[in-house]
Amino acid sequence: MEGSNNLNKEQKASVEILSNFLKENDVVIFDSVTDIKLKGGKKNQYQGKVKRIVQNQYARPNINGLFSKLMNEHLIEEYETALREGKEVEKPETYVASKPRWGTYVADGVLFHNNQIYVSLLPFSNEGTVHTITLSDKPIEDPSEIEGFPTDSSSSKSPVSVRMYNIKNITNIRNDKGEVLKVDIETGNISKLEK
After folding, report:
1. For a tag site, which of 3, 9, 158, 165 has the least CB within 10 Å?
2. How wide is the angle at C-alpha 182 spanned by C-alphas 180 and 185, nearest 5°?
3. What are the E-state strand segments in 36-141?
4. 138 within some domain
């Protein structure tokens, strides 16, 4: 794929391992640690000290045009519901996902941007998923009390969302068969662990 010439040897190996894992699994489970950017920039005393830790996040790999397929199913469902309700509506046009605003696909579901590997996933709710906000590695009950903590300004009403995760923020990605990919958060290199 285009852009894969910019990858070094370790990155190419990591992309191959990740890409094969995504192709082999309809659902993956991952844990991640992400720095939260606070309002106020460098002047904010808490900048760089606040993290979001997510454990047991379930997601579907965004491969083989999955996002477009799910969006089209949703549009058809809305259309059919409107018809059943007696509304006059036009049949929706086929949805085709646009190219990402940044990055280049180097494998199906895997992007490369600014010398970093990203994985394209469609996360979904699961009872076992745990979200924790920490300040200086201590859990915080009410993150809104942290100066400059961002509020959820998501205005998207889409029932399907695709997220690009920097692989360095994912500590591991696994399936329900016990197969685990371990990510070195310093280098972003991926290795497959034995069961």
Report:
1. 9
2. 155
3. 50-61, 104-107, 110-113, 116-124, 130-135, 138-139
4. yes
Instruction: Give me the pLDDT at residue 151, please.
Output: 78
Structural domain includes residue 100? no
Can you say how many angstroms the Cα of residue 44 is from the centroid of all Cα atoms in its chain? 27
* In-domain check, residue 8: yes
**Domain limits for position 152:** 4-64+105-193
- Give a yes or no: residue 96 inside a domain: no
Residue 122: left if φ>0, alpha if ψ -120 to 50, beta else—which one? beta
- Say if residue 6's pLDDT is above 90: no
Q: How does pLDDT run across 102-116, given as a tens digit for each residue?
A: 999 999 999 999 999
Contacts of residues 144-148 at CB distance under 8 Å and 24 or more positions apart, as own/partner, are 146/38, 146/46, 146/50, 147/38, 147/40, 147/44, 147/45, 147/46, 148/38, 148/39, 148/40, 148/44, 148/46, 148/47
**Cα 26–Cα 28–Cα 30 angle in degrees, nearest 5:** 170
User: What are the start-end ranges of the H helices in 93-175?
Assistant: none
Instruction: Measure the CA–CA gap between 181 and 18, rounded to whole angstroms.
Output: 8
pTM of the model: 0.82
Per DSSP, the three-state class of 152 is coil
Count of structural domains, the chain: 1
Given a cut of 70, is residue 172 above it in pLDDT?
yes
Q: What angle do CA 69, 72, 76 make, to 5 degrees?
A: 140
